[in-house]
Amino acid sequence: MRVLHVLDAACARPTDYGRRAQALLTALRSQGVQTVHLSAPAPPGADSRDDWPHHTWHLYRTPAPRTPRWLPEACLGAAHTAALALRLGRIARLTRPDLIHVHTPSAHASAAWPVARLGHLPLVVDADRRAADPGACRPFERFACARADALAAPSIEMRAALRAGGIRPRRIAVLPPAADVPAAPCARPLDTLDAPLLAYAGDLDAAAGLDLLLAALRDLRRSRRTLRLLVAGGGPQTEALEARIAAAGLNGYVRVTGRLMGRRAADVLARADVAVFPALADGGPLAPSRHLLNAMAQGCAVVASDLACHRELLVHGHTGMLFEAGSRKSLVEVLAPLLDQPWRRRPLGQAAVQCIASAHHWTAAAAGYRRLYESVLADARGRC
User: Fold this and answer.
1) For 337, how many CA atoms within 13 A lie in the half-sphere containing its CB?
2) Which pick of 41, 140, 226, 255 has the fewest CB atoms within 10 Å?
3) What is the share, in percent, of the chain residues with pLDDT greater than 90?
4) Cβ proximity of 305 and 280 under 8 Å
5) How far is CA 181 from the centre of its chain?
6) Closest CA to 32 of 349, 367, 270
7) How far apart are CA 359 and CA 351, in angstroms?
8) Residue 171: exposed, middle, or buried by beta-carbon count in 10 A (0-12, 13-18, 19+)?
């Protein structure tokens, strides 16, 4: 089986996206799947560093189209899509794949769909939140996703959101995401016994629930004066978050690291007593954060809001603790016993490691994709 993988231009740069894509491709190759790799055009001003393993795999690149500077943003996107479609058609004729797999972002499906149809090739697309949002998805992108032979969704909640948004291809397969770090418990640092540490990693937008976490921290610190919080994240919202931290009187007890690569954010989580993921119900994630998976893989005691995607992953009281999304009182009631009774944290971490080791690693992710490829190809042969 030969699969042509359509990747974002970030796959060749030293990014989390690139490392995750390469980990999946390595696992697929180890299971006998031949892989061909094509990257989309890089956006203007993109990082030019190259982290692709050229000595092992060849990467076909799509040159950015030459467009005038005055061209509107919408037209620029159309030019990039056209350039990717033309390049994809040439590579498909050259390599003769059995199937085309479009990785995130799902916007690249709009370039892959016409090539797949003209070449009579099955099309598999990785669905992201954009595909599930009718307001964010361009019409032709929605058209392409809806007519793919299969969409790969990371959670049942994402599958439900796709169907509710009108995206109804022949098949939507739920393929659980993989952690970036190996499943192995890390020894908790001893210096936090007298100064317990909470940690969060991820986006800093309103839907992440950081204001809720800050409010809960203020409540908890009334009887735990040494309690601290470490926020592994950054971006345009950093200044506003630091202003809210100062307004809450938490300067010196909350540290914002700035944007970190996935592995470095995982190191931050590994040093915490409790990793907290307080995403809100409105605008919250449709799939578990990779940082949550990394925290579980390292044996952290995890506390998360009871969103559907978190309930799919965590068993309350076994692999983690869930609290009512958006409720400061519920968050405090869940965190307080874990901080006051440290012996409750180790069993949660051990069960979390076992959960990741059994279902959320790259070998399991590749096996799920391989089975999806096989079923899509079997359906395609049956229609011939």
Assistant:
1) 11
2) 226
3) 75
4) yes
5) 14
6) 367
7) 13
8) middle
User: How does DSSP assign 123-163, residue by residue?
Assistant: EEEE--HHHH-TTTS-HHHHHHHHTSSEEEESSHHHHHHHH
Query: Could you read off the pLDDT of 280-295 as tens digits, one per residue?
Result: 998 888 999 999 999 9
Helix (H) / strand (E) containing 280: none
- Rounded-to-integer distance, Cα 329 and Cα 315, Å: 21
381 contacts: CB under 8 Å, gap ≥ 6: none
Does residue 293 contact residue 180 with C-beta atoms inside 8 Å? yes
Rg of the chain taking only CA atoms, in angstroms: 22
Task: Report which residue type is found at 68.
Answer: P
Alpha helices in the chain (DSSP H): 16-30, 73-95, 109-118, 129-132, 139-146, 156-164, 210-220, 238-247, 262-270, 290-297, 308-313, 328-340, 345-359, 362-383
Segment 56-72, tens digit of pLDDT: 899 999 998 887 777 77
Residue type, 266: A
Structural domains present in the chain? 2-178+361-383 (3.40.50.2000), 190-359 (3.40.50.2000)
Tokens of 208: 């992440």
* pLDDT (mean) for 299-324: 96
CB-CB contact of 294 with 179 (8 Å): yes
Q: Does this model's pTM top 0.85? A: yes
Confidence of residue 359 (pLDDT cuts 50, 70, 90): very high
